[in-house]
Amino acid sequence: MKESELSTEPIGQNLIKLISNLCFSVFVFSVLIFTVIAITYQPPDPWLESAPALTKLFTQTENATFKNDDSILKTGEDVVLVASPEVPPALAVNPITETVIKKSEEKILNLNLKSDCEDLKFVNCSDPRVLVTVERFNLKTFKFIVFLEYQTPVNGSKLDECDVAWRFRNKKEKSWRKYRDFRRFKFGIGENCTYNVVHAGGWHSGINARRPRNRPNTTRSSGNLRLAPLVGDEEINDTIPTLGSEMNFRKGKYLYYARGGDYCKGMNHYLWSFLCGLGEAMYLNRTFVMDLSVCLSATYNPSNRDEEGKDFRFYFDFEHLKEVASVVEESEFLRGWKKWNRGRKRKVPVKKVTTYKVTPMQLKKDKSTIIWRQFDAPEPENYWYRVCEGQAAKYIQRPWHAVWKSKRLMNIVTEISGQMDWDFDAVHVVRGEKAQNKELWPHLDADTSPDALLTKLKEMIQPWRNLYIATNEPFYNYFDKLRSQYKVHLLDDYMELWSNKSEWYNETTLLNDGKPVEFDGYMRVAVDTEVLYRAKTHVETFYNLTKDCKDGINTC
Description:
Blueprint: H1 2-40, H2 51-58, E1 61-62, E2 65-66, H3 98-110, H4 128-141, E3 145-150, E4 154-155, E5 161-170, E6 179-189, E7 195-200, H5 246-251, E8 254-257, H6 267-283, E9 287-290, E10 293-296, E11 307-311, H7 312-315, H8 318-324, E12 327-329, H9 330-341, E13 350-353, H10 360-363, E14 370-373, H11 407-419, E15 425-429, H12 432-436, H13 444-447, H14 450-460, E16 466-471, E17 487-490, H15 503-511, H16 521-533, E18 538-539, H17 541-545
Parallel strand pairs: 8-9, 8-14, 9-12, 13-14, 15-16, 15-18, 16-17
Antiparallel strand pairs: 1-2, 3-5, 4-5, 5-6, 6-7, 10-11
């Protein structure tokens, strides 16, 4: 018995050791595989949201064609970047916080200003204590706003009133742009003979603080331009930069995309392709040649026809694009090219690329002044974004941060939000063609009926709140039933902001050689999107109002 035990014991121990070693080997092998994957994986875009998520957001690809979801239009200022570009030094401003206000109060104490209540009987608007009072009031009242700078208060219409102007930014916007408000404040005398705000006026009520804005023409000089009677946002500078001397042109390196099959496609398709070209130019360390003429798809036009000749600057922030990327306008580029070649035997070196299958990696070491990509093949082979497919997707990072919505459109967004005192909720109601298509969205029409909306919203939004409705529903009175419970706001309630007496109208007319610009469907959706994102409570159609899937049945 003892001999048997002695002979079996080593076998048991060896078996345990064998199993232990095997498990350890599997663990080491798993770690090794994970490490290799972690090292070799390259995300295509440096965003907090994954590249596939952004791809799905902007486009739905199927056999190199696009299914457009034009109900929400995100651009760079709507998404948080992992590697956010630095704020230009000229635009860097420290926000006004409680700490900053306390430092201002300390400086005022050192001034030994009189604090006799009799002296405060009539408000002296230039008294620094008035400004400090307004700063603290605003900081407490508007919690979603970052206050950047104030102007010295000026007299209001009465002895106890002052008009105050300031620049600010909404906390939900990821850009570094500034917006302007000016309001009228009525003051009383508080404890220890200090000022306090008795009443604050609404958006843009402090008209005496509105500075006259005499900004020069921001487009190329033209004899056909008619100056608008009102001037616009002095912070917008979307001038077209010139190339300068012929030698400057020759020193440059350019990537030129000829017009392809993307022209007159949906705006999501346009952005996907445009950012592919811009991303390749950045990868090749070249200046991207831009055609500022945009063709607006019939999707966004009441006439249901494609409309050519729209200006890029109607929709997007060209000033910001110039700050973060090297771009040149197409006609300016062609003028420089033609001027250099005129009368010279040695022409500008040009490399023509006739297929998207020539990858950016193959062009990396090319020394030609101009790389000219041509897209003459039939669709979908002639789409710009094909350049960034396949292996190129590992090297070309679409610079989403470079595209912001037009500051002129964002001024309308700010105006709408400001008129609701930044205190509102919003619901995104998708109807239109989707509500009519019962095969793909069987419940959407019923789930977004006025009765159903009222029932659902009562569960999510308190009564008598400001409720902004972002929608593609064409009938203005469709949502009247909601007015029994909420202060309903629709985009068409603010038509004066793009009427022929508006700042937007005058600015865009100036850009468009004196011809009025239509406030088209794309602009409407862009504004709706941005107001929606600024709401305190945000209700979505396909997540809150209906069980139907956003892209149709069985796609959730």
